[in-house]
Design goal:
Layout lengths: L7 H13 L4 E5 L5 E2 L1 H5 L3 H20 L2 H15 L7 H19 L5 H23 L7 H23 L3 H7 L6 H31 L8 H26 L4 E5 L1
Antiparallel strand pairs: 1-2, 1-3
Helix pairs in contact: 3-9, 3-10, 4-9, 5-7, 6-7, 6-10, 8-9, 9-10
Amino acid sequence: STEPFPHDGDKDKRNGDEDAVQEFDIVTVDANGEEFSDETQSTLSTATIIRYLAIGCAVATAFMGTGLPIVSAYTPRMSEDLIGVEPLVAPLLLSSVSVPSGIIAVAMKGKLSARTSCLTGATLLCLCALLIGVSTMPGVITDNTARFALTGIGFAVFLFTIEVFVGSTFFELAVSIMPPELAEMGSATVNAVMSGLALVHLLAFPLAVDALNGREGAGGDPRFGFSVCFYAMGGMGLAVYAVLLCFMFPHATHDRE
């Protein structure tokens, strides 16, 4: 017996399917919609590279420079003076905020763009740091219950913001804001800045608090040093927000026929 030859119509159908396959080119564009060709990607000026790295450093500062290492490491030391709880209880309170915030962050993933999430987070971190600074400053709020409540709210919203807005988008932004040819260098730089900021905060914070508390007029009240440090971090948050608002635009890739 002989095998039947495929029908000519089947052959035409197969050819039609092959012809129907379309190829797409990946085109990389910047925030202004301008296309990066291979030549422009390989010849970025030094000023352009520095600008992109500076934006990446601002993103790292939004995550680490506004007080996350301090809140994480020194809460037991600050808890009794700032929120009126025992040092051993404070970490439990932080965990009670961080755990549900992490669940909310997973549920909100993809609901907001990385840029929107980071800008929202930078704004809230700045406001939280300033709120803690105001409520902590001796003589500003004399009622202990009100002072403890405001400071506790500031810490709670701070941790919520880190989990939901900033922390959930940091690593995505660290890569997406860089042109493709700067992705490796940019990611390494941003991570180095983040680690450096954490180290500086951890080393400088207790020294700054002790030095400020010893100033004339401070009266040895540790709340004075805490307050000034949080004011400084709030000011840093304002500067970071301005940089991110004006210059942080993730690159995008588009399919083009």
